[in-house]
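Homework help board

Subject: predicted structure for assignment chain

Our instructor gave us this sequence and asked us to write out the predicted structure in token form, then describe one feature. I got the tokens but I'm not sure how to describe them. Can anyone check?
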Amino acid sequence: MPPTDPHRARHLPFAAGAVALALLSACSSSDDAPAPVQTAPAPTPPVTAANTSVAFMTDVHFENVYGDFKSGQFAGIPTKDGRNATIRTMYAQLTSTRLFNENYFAFRAALDDAYAKGIRHVALPGDYSDDAQPINIDGIADILKEYQAKGMRFFIAPGNHDPNEPYDDMEAGKSDFLAKDGKEQKVYATANAACKSRDPAVVCTDQLMEQGYEKLVAKLSDFGFTPSKADVLWETPFSKYTDGKYSYDQALAQSGMKSRQYEICAEGEGGAYKAAGEAKLGKSYTRCARMFDASYLVEPVKGLWLLAIDANVYVPNANFDPASPQNFKGYDGAGNAGWNKVLTHKIHLMEWIKNVASRAKAEGKQLMAFSHYPTMDFYANQTDAMKAVFKPGAFQTARVPEAATTAAVAATGLRLHVGGHMHFNGTNDYTDGSGNYLANVQSPSLAVYGAAYKILTYKDLDTVDVQTVPLNTVANFNVLFPYYQVENDYLKGSTATADVAKRWDRAVLDTRTYGEYTRYYFGELSRLRFMDEYWPCEMKEAAMNLNAKQMLILSQLQTKVTLAQLKDNPGVVPLTANCTAAGAAAGAGVAASQLTADWADATARADKLAAAAGLKLDDFAQVSAYEFYGDFHRTVYAGELALRDMGAQRVAMYKVLMAAFPASPAAVARVGDKPSDQNPVGVPFQNQFKQVFAIFKGLGSAKPSDHFTVDLKGKKISNANGNGLSFN
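My token output:
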């Protein structure tokens, strides 16, 4: 154990014995017939953990679409209702892993839905804003206060976008706000270089600066960051209560920024942990600074503990200046650090989590822990396969926690964690050699395809019910569409190279529901960004040119005709040798015309595979290339929800493809890092897409992620949705 830190928390149990808990259920109401004799109404039962569900709304990425820039230069786009729309362009949305505008309406829809279900406790596990600008933080604070006045309570944990940096960034801004003529408008904070040089094309306002911890916590203090008199308990990793007895006055006094600091250094956590760390590294710690930790534990109703974990780790970098420790440029971002860095740079936090988990068990508390970052593999254990198949760094695999990290979190005794960050809907669990069990529930974003929120309810002390509530219907989701149409018209009419490159398919504006809109958005995101960023050239060509029928035939193709010969018989399969390197021809081959006969033979075999599954081969052609790679990416993000969207027939088609490839495909001959053009036509596809479909199957056959129960004692996750689809 590290030496004693005088600033570190010392905790004693706050109550003795376990809380006897009744079976949990979601709040409901009934209309009983009136009794013949009027009697006094029964007293309202106290709110306790036994009748409390918690909604988790992750990665809202709130942008205040009717916010005020407080600038005479640019007020946004005038709307019919007298407000101004301060929105980002549709092109910006279609090339981002999050929507910027429509999630404003989705967030309200989620809150309304949760309220209608009787839910009064809502957790926001990070990225509740999109870079913590005053215009956005003030906007979301107003909405939270509005619903708070109706009886809801909110509990926030910070994400890497709130704050984007630990200290204020007065140079930030965005280049892609939409002007009324359909063009882009740059809007930056006043210390930005363009503002300092008085660039006339730039709007300058500090409404676009990015706030650090201090301003964020001050503005959002009512939403968990500080105690409420209604709380049974509230503490931080640094809390000290006289004789171990909770006191609201002491909690409030210790909730300030100065009382919640630790030392962080480039190499690890300082303070009481520095000597041990230096001894382990064999060198001194450098670039050390005091840093705020926003973590807290709250008991809003008797028996329910919400553990809000600040897993942001902003490590001092080479730009760090000890004379100016609050310069935001002196710290690396937290996006890729996640829990991996918590282990080394927030040791005090790991010890506190262990303490909280132990006390929760001893006192019979229903503990729900949440942070912005996942605690384990969020790709249904497909991460290694994805690294092997796709481009280096594809699918943000750098953000996957190390196995040792998952083991360390499980070793704290924490059994249930809700994470976000990746905008994924998914579930995973882990049991270590000592029997410690940890379930990680990935709550999806409200701002992407598969938009949904989670409802967690303890059915008893060891069983948690998890429901996923999709946001397919969102009121007013399309009210901004007329302004995007102006943008589309402008881009189509412009001949500027930059504008031509940003043209997008206006069909997205014909969508009728939020669910349909986000599905279309994700197809465009795949086409405009993912295919270039993630897929190697030859795989991208195949994925973007082959429908499912052609893929099934190619999986059966046996031919000696090479990729180099495709130009001599181009009408058979829509592939080329454009992504290959010239290889040495291996003697006399077969004529290119042979491909026609070989393709016919493969078609006959594919037809039999389809028929064996009760399908018709021609039906596979309905799954276009665009639909295929869109489905793949949508399954990465939405898991079980994506399969439900596909429907049973398409799921059945994909299952045929997953089983169709040769057991041991021929190896791909390469010239350097490219496939050789002397590979037979089917070899690269069969080799690579066998792996692609294996990953696809893994993603679509993961632990349940729609409606399920977590058995914390039995250490298992069980599907509670009898109608769920799977690739198994």
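Reply (TA_rk): Your tokens look well-formed. For the description, you could write something like this. The chain is about 30% helix and 15% strand. That's the kind of observation they're looking for.
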